Amino acid sequence: MFSDTKRYRTHYRAQFNQLKSSSDGEYAIPLDVLRTRLRKQRSTIKLRDDQIEALLREADKNGDERITVEEFEELVTSREAQSSQVKRALYAIADQVITPQQRIEVHSYIDEYTCCPPPLFILLITIIEIAVFFYYYWTEPLAAGEDIFTFCAGCYVDNHVGPLLFAPKLRAQVWRFLSYALLHAGLIHLVGNMTVQIVIGVPLEIVHKPWRIGPLYLMAVLTGALLQYTLDPKVYVVGASAGVYALLTAHLANIFLNWAEMPYRWVRLGLISIFLVFDIATAIFRRICSDECDTVSHSAHIAGGITGFCFGVVILYNIVERPWERIIKHVCISLYVAFVAFTIALTIFQQPESSALWESSKCTQQAWLRAALL
């Protein structure tokens, strides 16, 4: 991910060499000598004496009263070394999705972070999705028996399909392949997606930058509609679940790539797995056991998960890239390109009246009723 890792390392070693003299030895600086030299340069590093003392004590972890270049790197990129509360907060957020070995590079990026562009993609898309939901909730009348928890905001406007909903017969209106993510089928649907989106998405965006997370999210939304139409071309698609699943599985890919280095890896894996299993099990139960004619999209979740994992393997930062991991990256790229091409081709040639792979005959009449709304 960080193509300029060597630049950061060179910069740190140059700083270290400036503080080191020929009498200090080749690899380390005596702690007392470094303390004195740092105090003389405190206007440059903008730290108080007591901060310097605390940082030096923490950096000298082996207690040998000497600071090596590796300890120096940890010192200058530690959260405690930052006087800015904003940077400390960014460090804390970023640390949730990286390994300890990644902190020097990631914290260095944050140190040079100029908020241009700002990490606002996830926050902005979240605000828009919330605003769209409440706009339609306040401006559209509720049907009998509907409330804020069951109201599909923006799905239907004046008894017609809304301008943002992905409807199979309107697939020629290509914006619908993305705009459906702005709609949600009730407050619980909205809150669940927005919570995961912020908790996982914001740290990922801070670390991996908007121009990686933005395309990942949008491609997940796009392929979500494509796969849903391919497998079940009579079902409408609504919600940001494809993008949310992409963020989750991108983080999952990061865990797998850095398994040995990732702290709390089993906890992270367990929490994500519980969410995925519960959500998928609920979808399967609703579709097969509870209501086999359910018109809620579930294939979009799968497409989002595939997108997130493939993107995650390819674009996220890997501490130690092993030969088999390079092979996995090429396999993921090839399979994902084939997956997208296949779904696009089927979307072009498959008709909206086509039956779903799992559709029963009793659902046909309901499909006709839905089509009449168009």
Automatic annotation (TrEMBL):
GO terms for molecular function: calcium ion binding; serine-type endopeptidase activity. Residues 47-82 form the EF-hand domain. The keyword Glycoprotein does not apply. The chain crosses the membrane at residues 120-138, 177-202, 214-231, 237-257, 269-288, 300-320, 327-349. The active site is at S241, H301. Belongs to the peptidase S54 family. One of its GO terms (biological process) is proteolysis. It comes from the Eukaryota. It is found in: Membrane. It is a multi-pass membrane protein. Keywords: Hydrolase, Membrane, Protease, Serine protease, Transmembrane, Transmembrane helix. PANTHER family: PROTEIN RHOMBOID-RELATED, RHOMBOID-RELATED PROTEIN. It catalyses: Cleaves type-1 transmembrane domains using a catalytic dyad composed of serine and histidine that are contributed by different transmembrane domains. It holds the Pfam family Rhomboid. Its EC number is 3.4.21.105. The lineage of its organism: Eukaryota, Metazoa, Ecdysozoa, Nematoda, Chromadorea. GO terms for cellular component: membrane. Its main location: membrane. This is rhomboid protease.
